[in-house]
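Long-time lurker, first post. I've been practising inverse folding by hand and with some scripts of my own, and I keep getting stuck on stretches where the structure tokens seem ambiguous. Below is the full token string for one chain I'm working on. Before anyone asks, I'm not after the true native sequence, just a reasonable design that respects the backbone. If someone could post their per-position residues I'd love to compare against what I wrote down in my notebook.
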């Protein structure tokens, strides 16, 4: 890099970092606004309202935004800040849906206690959305991008991205880098690989009978389900990183009837070394096996997310250098949680996850975001974009 170019680059870095340094209160205000909007998966109106709030901020800064309808789920928000060239873009990603039902935001709205913000989705991942918005705004205001910077905020990540996965993967193909703003780990670390997940819904048919008069004439679907649960939980294998958990069960009619039906939902987690099709075939064999005479089992639905393959070392190192220049250090770590970063990594896009502000206790009433990390984490992503070769 020539001396003049070096000086220009240093000036741009200073402008971007200085602008972001003054945005803490504005970030918190936008975070409050979107946390106080219920946007559970399949809440089309709520997801749309979050998208509108983010879009308003982006368009005011001159960022081009398009909202693509996803019937039944809400919208995909697309944004772009143009670069000096038209090469492959860098993609900032996030999801607008949460796991919380309607009414949660009214019951426990955004609040700040000490250095932490609380509220539904405050960490997972509305703070990450806000951070990405401000990173994009910084470049829209300061310029200096070599190639385009794109935003992609999805609407169904918490339920496996079935409606959006193909569009996410298409967007990521050929990207120079993907930064997914899931919450930073409690340690402050980033995520450089993730397990994939699979949710399998299945049901058991039995034969009803009076439990006191003629139980032998019946075939209990609940009894059969219990046996299958034990067999499915035996799939858990620390050596391969596979875990199995039947987390939902329903069945029967009344206590004095041999249960004619039962259903359950199984959660599986697996690494990138596991063949998910083979894993599903093993589940199917257990479900369909007649574990009790005159009972039948069948899978009614199956959805999966892909494991995130490891982040390329140069991309992690790029972020680490920027973070160190800002006064903090991070490492990459593996997690059992799944995310859309698995989709982007699967198409070959170099992907770094959990770049959002630090948070914890996601999916619980104790969910929090460390407000002091919002600005430096935004600055670190901005530096990774600026310094990307």
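-- Answer (accepted) --
I ran through it position by position. Result:
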């Amino acid at each position: 890099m020539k001396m003049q170019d070096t000086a220009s680059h240093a000036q741009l870095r200073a402008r971007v970092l200085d602008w972001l340094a003054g945005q803490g209160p504005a970030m918190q205000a936008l975070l409050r606004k979107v946390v106080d909007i219920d946007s559970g998966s399949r809440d089309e109106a709520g997801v749309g309202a979050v998208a509108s709030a983010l879009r308003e901020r982006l368009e005011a800064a001159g960022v081009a935004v398009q909202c693509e309808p996803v019937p039944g789920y809400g919208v995909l928000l697309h944004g772009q800040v143009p670069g000096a060239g038209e090469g492959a873009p860098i993609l900032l990603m996030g999801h607008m849906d949460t796991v919380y039902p309607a009414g949660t935001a009214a019951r426990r709205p955004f609040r700040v206690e000490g250095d932490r913000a609380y509220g539904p989705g405050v960490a997972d991942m509305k703070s990450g959305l806000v951070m990405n918005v401000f990173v994009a705004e910084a470049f829209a205001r300061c310029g200096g991008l070599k190639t385009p910077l794109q935003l992609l905020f999805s609407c169904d990540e918490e339920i496996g991205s079935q409606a959006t996965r193909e569009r996410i993967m298409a967007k990521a193909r050929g990207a120079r880098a993907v930064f997914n703003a899931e919450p930073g780990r409690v340690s402050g670390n980033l995520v450089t690989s993730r397990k994939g997940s699979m949710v399998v819904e299945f049901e058991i048919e039995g034969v009803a009978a009076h439990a006191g008069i003629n139980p032998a004439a019946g075939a209990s679907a609940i009894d059969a389900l219990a046996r299958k649960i034990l067999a499915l939980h035996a799939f858990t294998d620390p050596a391969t990183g596979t875990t199995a958990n039947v987390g939902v069960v329903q069945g029967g009619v009344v206590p004095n009837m041999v249960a004619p039906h039962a259903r359950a939902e199984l959660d599986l987690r697996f690494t990138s070394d596991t063949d998910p099709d083979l894993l599903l075939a093993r589940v199917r064999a257990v479900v369909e096996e007649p574990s009790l005479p005159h009972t039948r089992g069948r899978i009614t639905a199956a959805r999966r997310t892909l494991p995130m393959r490891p982040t390329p070392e140069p991309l992690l190192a790029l972020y680490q250098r920027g973070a160190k220049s800002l006064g903090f250090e991070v490492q990459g770590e593996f997690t059992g949680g799944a995310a859309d970063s698995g989709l982007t990594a699967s198409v070959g896009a170099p992907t770094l996850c959990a770049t959002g502000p630090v948070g914890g206790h996601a999916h619980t009433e104790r969910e929090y975001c460390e407000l002091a990390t919002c600005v430096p984490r935004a600055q670190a992503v901005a530096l990774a974009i600026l310094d990307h070769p």
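A couple of notes from the structure itself: The mean pLDDT is 96. The chain is about 35% helix and 25% strand. Happy to go over any region you disagree with.
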